[in-house]
Write a structure and sequence with these properties.
2 copies of one chain form a homodimer. By secondary structure, chain A is an alpha+beta fold. Helices cover about 35% and strands about 20% of the residues of chain A. In chain A, the strands form 2 sheets. Chain A has a 3-stranded mixed β-sheet. In chain A, strands 1-2 form a two-stranded antiparallel ribbon. The structure holds zinc ion (ZN) (4 copies). One zinc ion binds next to loops of chain B.
Amino acid sequence: MGQDHHGHDHGHDHTPASKEERMENARRVCQQHGERFTPLREHIFGLLIEADGPIKAYDLLDLLRPEHGSPKPPTVYRALEFFTRLGLVHRVEALNAYITCDHMHDGHSAEFFICETCDRVQERHAHDHSECIPKGFVIKRSVIEHYGSCVDCTAAAA
Amino acid sequence: MGQDHHGHDHGHDHTPASKEERMENARRVCQQHGERFTPLREHIFGLLIEADGPIKAYDLLDLLRPEHGSPKPPTVYRALEFFTRLGLVHRVEALNAYITCDHMHDGHSAEFFICETCDRVQERHAHDHSECIPKGFVIKRSVIEHYGSCVDCTAAAA
DNA sequence: CCTTGTTTGCTATAACATAGCGTTGTTTTG
DNA sequence: CAAAACAACGCTATGTTATAGCAAACAAGG
Ligand SMILES: [Zn+2]
Ligand SMILES: [Zn+2]
Ligand SMILES: [Zn+2]
Ligand SMILES: [Zn+2]
């Protein structure tokens, strides 16, 4: 189970964790990396979880505002850099947006399926590209984002 | 030949066209789409060809400047939108850069291998992702960019 | 020629992101 | 514990990327 036709887990069975579980996971990952899960970081990670999908840095900044005075861009960008470095958040390149990650990628890149109608995003481990890499090219990271229509929105459109 | 282990052409044998050929191709594609290849567009496409790799919009703007007075951002962004719409140029999302395309994608997306050491980019037709799409998801376009080290730079580093 | 639509130039502004610095708070070390 | 070292934070300022909107120039078709 969890194995697809390529012989490794693409996350098809991935059960989305609850918000509490996601927060706990973030706390644990920070500890494992010897990093601090400060109140500010927890606050921002909570907003990312609540967003429940890709969110833009400046929207995050707006959400941070009421409880946090008048935060400036570096505040949110620093947290995003931190979480991205720990693999807890991904940047969705073509949306200029950020999204939490529940996966244990372990060297895999992420692969996103993004519905442009309802804005929902499904994440998986990246499909294996090893068979079609130019000879000798060493991949350090991959950006893989598929844009289109999810099953529900496709059905609704018909 | 030109067929890889997945049974379709990924462009492994793709011979880079000369600059003149690339310009001619652009002219032809414009005609086929009933669009105008104006002097401004030709000028900008020429700069994109000369760049011979990903180039940023504002760098393009600088190159345009000497011959063209004082062009403003919309000038270059409009041309980039035009060429992108016709498939003559791709945006490299994670670089905020633009690059000419010699491929006949015909519904395929592009897939890029980008060396972060020498900045050279190899483009191919995208690897087929149809086997690992979430059930019912209809992909309209894909962003696939691999970052790492090309064969030459890997060898040079060792 | 006149109409219609496209392309271009321009001003202005929006949206996204980082540099650098001083302060505060935490951790480490003697 | 005290001093030193480091990490996180707040802030100002600026850099970078991209678009909106309008008017003039231009091309195409009747
Ligand atoms: Zn992930
Ligand atoms: Zn949808
Ligand atoms: Zn292409
Ligand atoms: Zn290289």
